[in-house]
Each structure stands twice: as C-alpha cells, then as structure tokens.
Write a structure and sequence with these properties.
The strands form two sheets. The protein has a ten-stranded mixed beta sheet with strand order 4-3-5-7-6-11-12-10-8-9, sandwiched between helices. A two-stranded antiparallel sheet has the order 1-2. The N terminus is likely disordered. It contains 14 helices and twelve strands. Helix 10 packs across helix 11. The longest helix is centred in the last third of the chain and has 27 residues. Strand 11 and strand 12 form a beta hairpin. By secondary structure, the protein is α/β, with parallel strands linked by helices.
C-alpha cells in the first residue's frame, strides 16, 4: 500500500514510483540559475530525443499487445537509422535489425498468451561491450582480435533475456572500461563528452534508442555518463550483481551498472534482475547527509551553486538536509584507489598486453605500466582501505542520523571535447567503499544536463532507489 506523509510522495512499488515521474526527455528547470526559463527557452538536445513512456508502462503495453511489438521495433529501427550515424552509441553489427526481427518472431511464438508473457517482453536493451552476450563478439573498446576476449554470457544478460528482453546490440566503451574514449557523442551536444566509460550505454538511453542499458563502474563509469547525458544511473552495492561474464578492469573495484531514463525505470529493471521489488520507498521524509570538505571542494563553482540550490529545494519540501565534515583524507583515498586500480589492471592484462601491447591505446598502456610498479604491500593496503572507508562512512551515517548521502553526480556538466571522459571523483569514495549510488537529473547548466547523486547504506540498494525516485520528482519539470 502506498504511504503519504504530508508533502512526501505516496509511493510503494515500481509502478507507483513511475506514476508521477519526470519526463526523461523534457528539459527541467535550471536549478541553481537565478531565474527559471520559460519551457520554450529551455535547452534543446542537439540530437532529437523522443518522448517515451516509463519502462514499466512500456513493458505492460508490449506484454498486452496494446503497443504491438513489431510496430514498436519498427519505430526503434527508424530512430536508430536517423540518429546512430551521429551518435555512435553502438558497436557495428551487420544486419542488426534482420537479427532482431528474427528474435522478435521467436519471442512471439514462445509467448503467445499476453497474460503469461515475461516482465520485459520485447523490451530492447543495450549492453556495454565488456559484458559477454552469446553470439556477439566482445572487444571492450579495443583493437584486440575478436577471439581474445571470449567468455560465457553474463548471468545478468541471461536473466534479462529470460525476462523477455531483446538485445539491440553492444554499446561503445572507453578501451577496457578505462579512459581512452569511444567515438560516442553526447545527445545533448555532440561536441561535449557523453562521459565514460559506459559512453554508449548512456547515450543510447538518453537518445531513446533503448529504455534500459547495462554499463559498469570501476570509479565513475555509470553515474558520470548518466549525469552528462541527463538520465539515471545506478551502481549497486559491491557484489550485489554478479561479475562473471564481464571483462574485468580492477576486480576489487568493478561493479555492473544500470542506466535508464529515470530512477523508477532503473528500479524496475533491478527488480527483474533480483527477483524482488527493486525499490523500497520510505514511509517518512528522509534525512540527507552532505559530506562537506575536500570532496565537495572538487566541484566547479557553477556546479556548487546548482548543488546548493537543489539542497535548498529539498529543504523547502520538508526534507532534513545536514552537512558534516567528511573525507579529510581525500587525497589519500584518491591515491590509494588509483594504485589499487592500476595494480589490479596490470595483473589482469599481463597476458594480453604481452601479446598485443602494440594494439593498446596510450592511456591504457600507461595504466598498465604504472600498475607494474605498484608494490604488493600497497595493493594490500588499498584493499584494506575499502573496508575501513566503508566502516567510517557507515559510522558517520549512524552518528549524524541520516539515511542517505546527497552529493553532486559530477564536478560539473559534460566538458567540451571528446578526448577525455570527465572526472569521476564524485563517485570515487563510493566505488572504493562499495556503497550503492544512484544519480538523477536535477537541472541544466549552460544547456547541458546535470544531476545529483544519492548514496545508500551497505546493501541498502532498494532503499536508496526508493528514496531517489521520490526525490527525483521534487526537481522534475512541472
């Protein structure tokens, strides 16, 4: 049963969470600007973004036949042909839609009864090209031969297929999910980075080519591109989703990530993967904690103003927002994380790099070179810091009495240029500690989307998704 506490949205299930959700395509008011522009004056994406219904409603319409599956996929094909040439979200595939049409017919034959169709019946999804999909090569954004990075299909992909999803294709990624950027463009402005390393997954969702995509995050590779592309991104708690069937970068830091237009959509998909409700809304207003200090000091001034305005908006809605001093050892956290990432990446790539080193791009080659110099003792201390940082964060949460952390989703809007994927420092402490993070769009700065991020307690994934879905409504377009 849905619960309402005064101002607090009455929400209980994934369907409830999406009932008054923000449109993923309509630019919201520019929170943090001195004036709110008239809707006609709000920023328009450079690549047209179609209006789409939320994932749970779309899935219900496809299951029932209210929206015929063949008609829907014909629309997706037309949009793909119109936008993918500039967007470059997907890895190349010959006869993509011939394959998809055949899989569609097979799906219709397997599930003729609308009342018995699986939850994601006919939903097209995108999968980051470090995640194995049966019948599709994995290149991980690299020039390595297709027969090098082979492996069994990801259990998450297999689960989504069993739930009726159709894989539209593999999405572009920074090389080996690190920093050497893909060719993908930002749908809001093609001259700005879409972020990375889940560049293609974020852009594909933002452009409406798919309502859901799989990404990954080692530092900030899901939440940051989601923020830059104006959608929702979710990094579950470390270990919550299996990483088998995924090309690793740094196993102590690697997470799968989920991307969709809104938090309610992410929660719906997460629920399909876990087999239980993806979001657990609170029955009272949450208390939010802001980790003040060296961490927040890394924001750009214009993002700091935006973030303060969002916090003020939440306070005006009756939510308690408190700031407390945190991450005084931020430089140590960054240094230890970089060493851990480099050392583990060097070990992972040892065999491949010895054989194909000349095919690696410079950023990845430099990472491997640096990782070879990391002493084993430093790797051990980095791994130990994961647990101690998590313990410190959870102790601060208990001591100050808040439910979730509220932070920026990035240091600012998507930077100009395609040679770099942006700064992932806003995710770094949470990826190291393994705590769940979810971001959503909170406005625009200079015509580019920006967002805020909620961080939950250890394995409090459903709770942070429920809270984020409600908060997203507060900063949504009216």
């Amino acid at each position: 049963m849905a619960v309402s506490v005064g101002f607090w949205p009455a929400v209980s299930t994934a369907d409830d969470l999406s009932a008054s959700r923000p449109s993923p395509r309509r630019p919201a008011a520019m929170v943090g600007e001195p004036t709110v522009p008239h809707p006609a004056e709000r920023p328009t994406p450079m690549i047209p973004l179609p209006e789409v219904c939320d994932l749970s409603q779309l899935a219900a319409s496809l299951r029932s036949g209210l929206f015929p599956l063949r008609d829907y996929l014909a629309r997706i094909e037309a949009l793909f042909e119109a936008s993918e040439g500039e967007l470059r979200a997907f890895t190349p595939e010959d006869r993509r839609f011939v394959r998809l049409q055949a899989e569609t017919e097979q799906l219709l034959v397997r599930h003729p009864d609308p009342a018995a169709r699986p939850p994601l019946f006919g939903i097209p999804i995108a999968v980051k090209d470090i995640v194995h999909v049966a019948g599709m090569p994995t290149r991980a954004g690299s020039a390595l031969p297709a027969d090098v990075l082979v492996g069994p299909e990801s259990p998450c992909v297999a689960a989504l297929k069993r739930a009726g999803a159709l894989v539209l294709g593999k999405t572009e990624t920074a090389e080996f999910a690190f920093r050497a950027p893909a060719a993908t463009r930002n749908p809001y402005h093609p001259e700005h980075t879409p972020g990375g390393s889940s560049s293609g997954s974020a852009a594909a969702v933002s452009a409406g080519l798919v309502p859901f995509a799989i990404g990954s995050q080692t530092i900030g590779s899901t939440n940051r591109p989601a923020a830059y592309c104006g959608i929702a991104g979710f990094k579950p708690s470390y270990g919550r989703l299996p990483l088998s069937g995924v090309v690793p970068l740094a196993p102590s830091l690697d997470h799968l990530g989920l991307l969709a237009p809104t938090v309610a959509d992410v929660a719906f998909a997460f629920g399909v993967l876990t087999g239980k409700p993806g979001a657990v809304p609170m029955n009272r207003p949450p208390v939010l904690g802001i980790p003040d200090g060296p961490y927040l000091a890394r924001m750009e001034p214009r993002m700091a103003a935006h973030f303060e305005a969002v916090a003020a908006r939440f306070r005006a809605s009756g939510i308690t927002v408190i700031a407390y001093p945190a991450f005084g050892d931020m430089e140590q956290i960054i240094s230890a994380t970089r060493e851990l990432l480099a050392g583990e990446a060097a070990a992972i790539h040892q065999r491949w790099y010895a054989q194909f080193g000349e095919l690696y791009r410079q950023q990845t080659a430099d990472l491997i070179t640096a990782g070879r110099a990391v002493a084993p003792a430093h790797l051990q201390s980095g791994r130990a810091l994961r647990l101690s940082l998590r313990t410190q964060c959870l102790a601060a949460r208990e001591r100050h009495g808040f439910d979730c952390w509220l932070t920026p989703a990035a240091t600012g809007p998507a930077p100009l240029g395609l040679g770099d994927t942006g700064d992932g420092v806003m995710q770094l402490p949470w990826s190291l500690s393994g705590l769940p993070t979810v971001n959503f769009r909170s406005g625009f700065i200079d015509g580019l989307p920006v967002g805020v991020q909620l961080v939950g307690g250890w394995y409090g994934d459903e709770e942070v998704l429920g809270t984020a879905a409600a908060l997203e409504q507060i900063v949504a377009d009216d």
